[in-house]
Amino acid sequence: MAFQSPLAQTNPGATRPSKSTNLKSMGGLALSATLAGLSITLIACGSTTTLNGAGASFPAAIYQRWFKDLADKGVRVNYQSVGSGAGVRQFISRTVDFAASDVPMKADEVAKVPQGVVQIPMTAGAIAVAYNNKGCDLQLSQPQLVDVFLGKINNFSQLGCAAKPIKVVFRSDGSGTTSNFTAHLAAISPAWKNDVGAGKNVKWPTGIGAKGNEGVAAQLTQVDGTIGYVEAAFVKDPLQAAAISNASGQKLKPTLASEQEALAAIDLGPELTGSNANPTKGYPIVTFSWILLYKTGNGARMEALNKVFTHSLSDEAQAMAPDLGFISLPADVLAKSRLALGSIKP
Prior knowledge:
Elements: E1 9-10, E2 21-26, E3 29-34, E4 40-44, E5 48-55, H1 60-68, E6 75-81, H2 84-92, E7 98-101, H3 107-110, E8 117-131, E9 139-140, H4 142-150, E10 167-171, H5 176-188, H6 190-195, E11 208-210, H7 212-222, E12 226-231, E13 240-241, E14 243-245, E15 251-252, H8 256-263, E16 286-294, H9 302-312, H10 315-318, H11 331-341
Parallel strand pairs: 5-6, 5-7, 9-14, 10-11, 10-12
Antiparallel strand pairs: 1-5, 2-3, 3-4, 7-16, 8-12, 8-13, 8-16, 14-15
């Protein structure tokens, strides 16, 4: 990704000044004088501010839709869907204005950001167990789900469908989707917890890797007999979502109602970073997705950041979520997210 300084305010078509350029504000104009050639460029202020963000592929579709709404309102957002792990790394190195992650930053990661970190739940969704096998309606118990991804169940005939080899597809990049999916597997299986574990990257016992939710969905779509995990919005024909068991033994597919029921059981806590890897009600693999902002040091980007995420947390923007395959934030979470946004400083 070609990086543009987070401090930059750009006007499309304007020439970017060289490193030897000094900028001085003057009555709504930026005066740029190149020391070596004494050339002068006048750039109108207050045109378009460009923000750079990177991170989770899980919420990319809804973020791109929200950001598109601001294109004619003075803010352009370049969001790179590179995965939660890469987004957090870029955020720590301060090469972006904000990041997105499906897993909150850990205390040791936050400690690496001297400006401080504000983690804001921005949207939510379900992780579907997606598969490509027409005519097969998968209804998986918790042991069956684990055994598929351990490689112990390797044929659809073991799951009550016509015989066909199972090919597992997993995320090859550092992924919040992987972290949430493996957290569920670890919560329901001591064998998985001890032998594989949970995290953005794990050593998968079987299968092939693909990058991003987009890459996994593409691999599943192209290869018959595959099974993997993706954000529910990526499950499109010929893919289907399996029904999987919650902690009460109820087998459910990801639907808006079943996802909302499970989401309501998550206690975010005072830092707005909580989760529930094995809920007793609703579809069992749901998660919030967070926007990561600097608490201080936002400088000239402050106004644009507020504009972007005030819009994202508006009732109008949140109402778009179900049609895009996501879950609107519950009213109490939305109120807390708005307060958290108000805590960031220039």
